[in-house]
């Protein structure tokens, strides 16, 4: 089947509905990402062939007292009067995760009719995977690198084995909490059946839950951990690094947070900032539609178990 080049903006607009996987840079807010995406979409749409101005019927006097009916351009719909055909207010945009300013990585966005899919994906609470980097020996006010240093400590006694044992303890404590936060009795038959199905999510969608945590890299004083979690926030991950430093008989603060997976949306498939244009976004939407078709559990699950959970991903 031969490909056809589409130059009509209304036709392209009809295809601009779905989810897209973007790479959010660090130091940029979600609102700035939205403004950039919407601006680029409107710019590219207005460069295509937009619809012509509307016509209006005019009745004028003709020769020999006869009336002449003809169509003329409606100046109230002229581009010089109303501005570009596609305005930022025309584009609906919804984010599946409210990443903070310091967080980078995978950001799933629903555009136009895809806003409904983004809402369903957000309510379904799929697993997210982060690479969080901390700095040992310094503590800050907000647990992030840009704030004032409040404490210093030695780190010569800290090794990778000690960090690994601490992370294993944190993971075990969160696994015990899973059943407490799921809203069922741990000693009940329902708890046993849920345990047989696999990893479960808590009933409260405001309670952060860590399903897996491991040491990914250790270069003193920097260390990077991989966190599999739901209901987490940027502040929670920063506080987690702070608590790790305290439990290591030292102190630490967070230097970077990168989301490498959101459900089945991977870091390798996310669009970089330079690729946030109309053509690439529509192509990314087609890829996202295939993912949703292959993994319908991302939008709706039949039970509380996390589907497709694999800590090796």
TrEMBL record:
InterPro entries noted in UniProt: PsdUridine_synth_cat_dom_sf, PsdUridine_synth_N, Trub2
GO biological process assignments: pseudouridine synthesis; RNA processing
Pfam families, per the entry: TruB_N
GO MF entries: pseudouridine synthase activity; RNA binding
Pseudouridine synthase II N-terminal domain segment(s): 102-232
Assigned protein family: Belongs to the pseudouridine synthase TruB family.
Designated name of the protein: Pseudouridine synthase II N-terminal domain-containing protein
Organism: Anopheles atroparvus (European mosquito)
């Amino acid at each position: 089947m031969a490909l056809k080049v589409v130059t009509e903006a209304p036709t392209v607009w009809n295809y601009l509905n779905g989810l897209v996987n973007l790479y959010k840079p660090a130091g940029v807010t979600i609102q700035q990402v939205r403004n950039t995406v919407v601006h680029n979409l409107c710019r590219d749409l207005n460069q295509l062939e937009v619809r012509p101005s509307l016509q209006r019927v005019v009745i004028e006097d003709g020769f020999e007292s006869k009336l002449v009916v003809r169509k003329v351009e409606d100046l109230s719909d002229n581009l010089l009067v109303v501005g570009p055909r596609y305005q930022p207010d025309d584009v609906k945009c919804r984010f599946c995760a409210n990443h903070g300013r310091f967080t980078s990585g995978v950001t799933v966005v629903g555009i136009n009719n895809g806003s409904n899919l983004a809402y369903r994906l957000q309510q379904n609470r799929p697993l997210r995977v982060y690479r969080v980097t901390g700095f040992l020996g310094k503590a800050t006010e907000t647990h992030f690198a840009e704030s004032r240093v409040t404490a210093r400590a030695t780190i010569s006694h800290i090794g990778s084995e000690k960090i690994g044992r601490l992370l294993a303890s944190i993971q075990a404590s969160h696994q015990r909490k899973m059943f407490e936060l799921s809203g069922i009795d741990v000693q009940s038959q329902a708890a046993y059946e849920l345990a047989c199905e696999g990893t479960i999510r808590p009933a409260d969608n405001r309670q952060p839950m860590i399903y897996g945590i491991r040491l990914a890299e250790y270069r003193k004083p920097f260390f990077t951990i991989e966190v599999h979690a739901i209901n987490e926030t940027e502040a929670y991950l920063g506080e987690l690094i702070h608590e790790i430093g305290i439990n290591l008989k030292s102190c630490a603060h967070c230097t970077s947070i990168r989301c490498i997976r959101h459900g089945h949306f991977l870091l390798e498939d996310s669009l970089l900032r330079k690729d946030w244009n109309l053509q690439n976004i529509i192509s990314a939407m087609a890829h996202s539609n295939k993912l949703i078709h292959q993994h319908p559990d991302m939008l709706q699950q039949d039970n509380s178990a996390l589907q497709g959970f694999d800590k090796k991903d």
